[in-house]
Amino acid sequence: MTHPLFKKEIFVETAFARRFQKMLQDAWDNRSWHLLVADPGAGKTMSIRDLQKRAGGRSVLAVVAPKNNDDEQALGDQFLAALGLPIRGHWSTRKPKLMGHLHQYGTEFLIVDDAHDLSLEHLMLLKEVTDQGRLQYDHPLGLCLVAAGRGDTIPLKETFDLPDPTWLQFRRRFDKLAPFCRVASHTSEEVRDILSTLEQEYQPLFPQLRLSQWTSSIYAWLTHPVLDPTRSGRVTMDNLMKLVVTALEWSYLDGKTDVAPSRLKSAAELLVLRHDTLKLIDGAGPTTLAPDQTSAEEPGVNGKEPERQTAPEKEQQNTAKTVEPAKEQVQTKTSPNCTFSGEQVPIDLKRFTDSGINLVECPRCGRMRSLSPSKGVLRFKAHTPRKQQTPLTEKRWSATGKTDWSVVEG
């Protein structure tokens, strides 16, 4: 049976949370308007909840954009419920009183989560209520529309760009310097900090837990194109927690005092290789414990039925090539190059740039190459395996004999 600690929702003050909450705090202090975009699963909602808890009272009011209901009343009732007010009577009676209630409760800052679901009517209500606050109560309100999105997409921008005077006025209320902001997820170094924090959180169950030693592997798994389709090189908190908690839960059931590396790999495969897998549940039902990587069998062995795939066969083949590029190359083409040629080097780019060292040692054969970032990632150049075994003396990045990349000399 699993431990209650694994079901507990843990808020970690991550680098993303600090960036995101800093934007919210500035908007609150300056009563400014912003559209904040972040990756799905980055940790937006938990960061909003933490800010609200620390703010106390009703000074910060956060609601979730209504789903499948475009009427302005749906959003208005969300605000009334957040204030703790009963929702009685007709909307035409409640609506004129909404700003009065916000003024009475001392609300200074509004946050709308899942703002990508807002309709034209919802946005019109926000404009009307905040206009009323300025005109009748001399009570300006800060506003942050928090949306989920990937890449350079700006949710709702098509609406804000409409030529109608209403949307021109709405657009004018946004902050003049930073109206639309993307809050980035976690770098490799920030993942290391989170893992160190989680070591303390789960220390009662795992006295010898050292998650941070697996930072490079975890970062590489979680920036796989399946989980990072825009190739941003950033890791979301949701994917990180899914991988870590799953591996820890299995290790706990194994009776371990530290996380088993094979369990981390199994959890990563669940997130990547089996991302679109339809798992067959039969017999006595699902089991909590997954097969260990060290003894896992290939699907279809010993008469066991393989898991049924929902993705098309061609798409599955492409996924396999993405996950195991070196293995696929060996099967289809004989090459004199080292098998690490073209592989992504999971070094945090800021850490790499700040070091001033661009020489990197191949972890497979020891050959050194000068690297520079391309499209936000480092890739090792194509090269033949190093045959001479003379000691390396140059100052360089290396992961040979270690669990993570660092600058070494000699």
Number of helices: 15
CATH topology-level name of the largest domain: Rossmann fold
What's the domain count?
3
- H and E string: HEHEHHHEHEHHEHHHHEEHHHEEEE
What fraction, in percent, of the residue positions are helical? 25-40%
Tell me the number of strands: 11
CATH evolutionary superfamily of the largest domain: P-loop containing nucleotide triphosphate hydrolases
Query: Termini distance?
Result: 49 Å
CATH class of the largest domain reads Alpha Beta
User: Which blocks of ≥5 consecutive residues have pLDDT under 50?
Assistant: 294-333
**Structural class, judged by helices and strands?**
alpha/beta
Could you characterize the architecture of this molecule?
The chain is of the alpha/beta class. It has three domains: 6-182, 3-Layer(aba) Sandwich (Rossmann fold); 188-323, no CATH class; 332-410, no CATH class. The chain has 15 helices and eleven strands. It has helices spanning 15-30, 44-55, 72-82, 91-94, 98-104, 120-137, 157-160, 165-172, 188-201, 215-222, 237-253, 261-271, 313-323, 325-332, 349-355, and strands spanning 33-38, 60-64, 109-113, 142-148, 180-182, 277-278, 308-309, 359-361, 368-370, 395-398, 406-409. The strands form four sheets. Strands 2-3-4-1-5 form a five-stranded parallel beta sheet, sandwiched between helices. A hairpin with a 7-residue loop joins β10 and β11 (406-409). It starts with 14 loop residues before the first helix and ends with a strand. Residues 294-333 have low confidence and may be disordered.
